[in-house]
Amino acid sequence: MEEDQRSAAWSIYLALHHLASGAILAMPLDTTVTRDRMIAGDLDHALSILNQVGPTAAEIAPELVERVRRQVSGWETAGPDRLPDLLDALQELSELTGASLPLPLPPGLG
């Protein structure tokens, strides 16, 4: 695996980690636009990262990248399995990159 491919997979991992963390902590996942600025939500950020580095990561894991793209694109209409499916993808990306970050626990479990 080349460094740019590992870096692309890690970028996707980080974007999904933020999305999972936001979902676990019940944070708003949509982009917020105010008069002064735009704050990209975790969902839009994940889609943006997939668009930027997805093709490079797909060189080493095409099925995983496509599955992640479907998961993120369908996040708002997906059923209750969306978070466990996302955590599975995070695990696969972690194995691919050889690195990981801990996920936050839901409030009251920490």
Tally of strands:
2
Q: Helix and strand string, N-terminal first?
A: HEEHHH
Low-confidence stretches: none
Strand coverage percent? under 5%
What characteristic shape results from the CA principal axes? globular
Counting helices, strands and paired strands, the structural category is mainly alpha
Notes on the protein architecture:
Helix 1 (3-24) packs antiparallel against helix 4 (82-97). This protein has 110 residues and is mainly α. It contains four helices and two strands; from the N terminus they run H-E-E-H-H-H. 61% of the residues lie in helices and 4% in strands. The chain starts with a helix and ends in a 13-residue tail after the last helix. The mean pLDDT is 85. Strand 1 (32-33) and strand 2 form a beta hairpin.
Summarize the structure.
The protein is mainly alpha-helical and 110 residues long. It has helices at residues 3-24, 42-58, 62-73, 82-97, and strands spanning 32-33, 38-39. The chain has four helices and two strands; from the N terminus they run αββααα.
